[in-house]
Amino acid sequence: MRTGFSARISARKLKTVLIVAALIVGAAFAAFGTVILTDLSTLKRLCTAETKGVVTELREETKALHRGSTTSYYPTFSYEYGGKQYTYSSRIGSSSPAFTEGEELVIMVDPDSPERIYVPKEDSGWTLGIVLCVIGAGFLAAGLIPTVIGIRSRRKAHADETGPDR
Questions:
Q1: Which of 61, 67, 47 is nearest to 97 (CA)?
Q2: What are phi and psi of 135, to 5 degrees?
Q3: Contact 31/135 with Cβ under 8 angstroms?
Q4: In this structure, is residue 47 part of a structural domain?
Q5: Is the pLDDT of residue 6 over 90?
Q6: What are the backbone angles phi and psi of residue 154, rounded to the nearest 5°?
């Protein structure tokens, strides 16, 4: 009597499930990375007015993990544009503080929507987008390569069975 995982699913079905999973995970990672990079690129294009800003707070968030914890740092920027004071709390965190409280820096402001900013020094979003795209490409390759090899081998086997075209 066979027991265990191998008794319930064949190697071929397992391979198919793993390939499909790799393709889905790869597409998701690549899509999220692309969205992040596209949003940042759009923000960079829209924010054309330069102003000076200051880091007014560096919020620290610690999250418990299975083994230990991880800490992320989120800056809050204060800046003036058009005679009005604005504050922006970044949604992009980094594993090590990229800023210090009181630090002065260049902030690019969208003239049509001054609460929307782009901070040239804040590059962790670009890094995250690129990393997600690279991971996605790796998973996609892990799913596509065996798929292409399988299709080619089936075509060759079919051609060998039917013989040359006449």
A1: 61
A2: -60, -45
A3: no
A4: yes
A5: no
A6: -65, -40
**117 contact partners, CB below 8 Å, separation of at least 6:** 47, 53, 77, 79, 86, 88, 107, 108, 109, 110
* pTM score of the predicted model: 0.72
Among residues 121, 91, 127, the alpha carbon closest in space to that of 106 is found at 121
What pLDDT is attached to residue 144?
A: 92
Question: Distance of CA 19 to CAs 16, 26, 119, 138, 143, Å?
Answer: 5, 10, 40, 12, 5
The 10s digit of each residue's pLDDT in 12-22 is: 888 889 999 99
Residue 112, classed as helix, strand or coil, is: coil
Is the pLDDT assigned to residue 3 strictly greater than 70?
no
Is 161 within the bounds of a domain? Answer: no
User: 164 lies in a domain?
Assistant: no
Number of domains observed in the structure of the chain: 1
Give the model's pLDDT for residue 152.
Answer: 84
Nearest to 116 by CA among 98, 83, 90: 90
Expressed as residue numbers, the domain containing 123 is 11-153
In a domain, 2, yes or no: no
